[in-house]
Amino acid sequence: MGWEALWQWGEDVVRVEPLTGGVANDVWSIRIRGQIAVGRLGSRPDADLSWETELLRHLDRAGMTVPVPIPTTDGRLFVDGLVVMKYMEGRPPETESDWRRVADTLRELHRLTQGWPQRPGWKSSTDLLHVETGTRVNLAAMPREGVIRCRAAWARLVGRQTCVVHGNPSNPSNIRMTADRVALIDWDESHVDVPDLDLVLPDNAADLDDSAYDIASQASAAWEAAVCWRDEYAIKRLAEVRAV
Q: Mind telling me which InterPro entries this protein's record contains (predicted)?
């Protein structure tokens, strides 16, 4: 159905202009009931969208600032791959102090989602020690030597508690800040994993000690290499993962 499904949010809902930054989705600003919102159209299956929208509602109820989904007139949170979400005002982080606030927000996300079920079809970094595929990851497509290096990095995370990770919080475009709150947007890569993967931030804003930072940064580089393989960025990230 595509964007034609917008009428299910009301007869006066219209697309305003495309928004940049997304890769896997078509994202537009939307005017709904006189307010600006965000519409995102993609090809994710219903089970995946149900996981994401329920997560955002949970975080919103717990007091976090997230792009909470706006229901259709009959109460659905998505229709044929289309989700309409609250628009997040603000600016990206710029200073060390800003990034420390981002780290605090991520730790609150991790605290609120301990024991959360895995996103349908996804695998965590430590799951990939034993399987080759999970959503966008296909280790069989990577060089064998690269897979060995990635798995060695992920093996250092075994036994740690898991929770929902945002998946790409070090990208400033995924953060919207104001004087009194930090909002995380673009939850496409969120899944259940070890929280360290979220805490490799500029200026070591999460204040990890040397050992913890090394473990997290190596595991994060391995993850981004695997999930993006094989574009130029993934090749660059794989080069950062040390040989065994």
A: Aminoglycoside_PTrfase, Kinase-like_dom_sf
